[in-house]
Amino acid sequence: MKRLTCLALPLLLAACSSKAPLNYHTLTSAAEPASQARAADFRFALQGVSVPPQVDQPQLVVRQGEGIALLENERWIAPLADEVRSALSADLSRDLGTLDLGDAPRGSGAPVLRIKVDLQRFDSQPGRGVQQDALWILRLAEPGGERVLTCGSRISQPAGASYAEVVAAHRQALAALARRIEPVARAFVADGATVCPAG
């Protein structure tokens, strides 16, 4: 029995050592460039972001042919909804020239624009591209009540074949979404007759 155990141990260790390592991904950049944008005359608070339940997994979920693959060794470093919110917060802070208040106490002073983003599609196709469909809602409290504007955007980005390139394409798509929200947010606070952009 001891001889069998001794023979089995090296095989077990070899099997463990050959297991593919876990790779972790994030949608946030290592360092955000300094903002060159004109500072908005209001502050904003990005609410929690929702993502489709099909991709709300620790693993990356990608399309492969006609099917879907859950990539066991390719993981998000944090829950996907948190990753998306962090990336959007950084992009909107840069584009609006002001910090995201999040859930911090509001206090008095400049008006606070609340922004809610609902990602209804978060598709990944290695070697082809990514697509994000987003519903975004702007809310501004005023003495006479609350103004609300609901808009939608569909954003596609080409992606390389590697999973890191797919993640980078999603990062670019989120930056493009922030660029669509920024001018509408400025106009919405200044003028109640603001309309949504096409697409």
Automatic annotation (TrEMBL):
Residues 1-20 form the signal peptide. This is ABC-type transport auxiliary lipoprotein component domain-containing protein. Coiled coil: none annotated. Pfam families: ABC_trans_aux. Residues 26-181 form the ABC-type transport auxiliary lipoprotein component domain. InterPro entries: ABC_trans_aux (IPR005586). The keyword Hydrolase does not apply. Keywords: Signal.
